[in-house]
Specification:
Elements lengths: L1 H23 L8 H26 L7 H6 L19 H22 L5 H29 L3 H14 L4 H4 L3 H8 L6 H19 L20 H16 L6
Helix pairs in contact: 1-2, 1-8, 2-5, 4-5, 4-6, 4-9, 5-9
């Protein structure tokens, strides 16, 4: 049970860590100062959640620390979804990727607030306000871009066409997630999916975005099978720890 809980914490934290890193790549590159700061703050929020998950995980496995968990695993030992690995192609892709994740992440945290595990529940209670802001931010930008100029609309539609295929993985229950749900620790992904679908139906018509013809892809990032992008991300994330093992400030 302890090993399953440990791995579940990694699964929860890895999404936020990889997406947080993607957003950190944009620091200083936002379309305006306010949006640049907002994206940086979202990145910091996500990394704060990661630290909470990994600090807890480190108490469950001898010899591990939050730093070793974050920076010293091999690629197959990361359990983030393929969606959050996708690159910052343009601002529309950044916003749509964030929106799709936020529409999933907020109801996920709402489920975890009721977890029988007191630490996971506390992390979710602390993170939910941030998640609500993230979803409001990304939803407003989706509407603004989708219902904006001809160019902004086309770029937003292209971003949905590119990124929407990866959402199926968010809601497919792995054996680990099923076990955690049955223990009353993990989230019910069916309920998360229902909330996600409602957010899509509330936001997309206002953005004039069409997704009915988009075909979903079967991906297995949650089982450790990743796109080519994760290797490049980990090269940047892990360089300092691997170059200078056990370094201290």
């Amino acid at each position: 049970m302890k090993d399953q809980l440990y791995k579940y914490l990694l699964l929860l934290g890895d999404n936020s860590m990889i997406l947080g890193h993607r957003l950190s790549e944009l620091c200083g590159h936002g379309p305006n100062l306010e949006t640049d700061i907002a994206l940086t703050n979202i990145s910091l929020d996500l990394f704060g959640q990661v630290r909470s998950y990994f600090k807890y995980a480190a108490t469950l496995k001898e010899g591990e620390t939050e730093d070793s968990i974050a920076f010293l695993r091999f690629e197959r030992d990361y359990y983030n979804t393929i969606l959050v690995e996708q690159p910052n192609k343009d601002f529309a892709h950044v916003i749509v990727r964030q929106f799709l994740f936020d529409a999933y992440h907020k109801p996920l945290l709402e489920q975890l607030m009721n977890s029988k595990d007191e630490t996971i529940s506390a992390i979710a209670h602390k993170s939910i306000k941030e998640s609500k802001y993230h979803l409001r931010f990304s939803s407003e930008w989706v509407k603004r871009l989708g219902d904006g100029t001809e160019i902004s609309h086309q770029k937003t539609q292209n971003a949905f066409n590119t990124l929407m295929p990866y959402i199926e993985e968010l809601f497919i229950e792995t054996p680990l997630e099923l076990a955690m749900k049955n223990e009353g620790i993990g989230a019910d992904l069916n309920l998360v999916k229902a909330s996600f679908d409602k957010t899509m139906s509330d936001v997309l018509p206002s953005a004039n975005i069409e997704t009915s013809d988009i075909k979903l892809r079967k991906t297995n990032g949650k089982s450790g099978f990743h796109s080519e992008y994760l290797g490049f991300i980990l090269t940047e994330l892990q360089y300092m720890q691997r170059a200078y093992p056990d370094m201290s400030w």
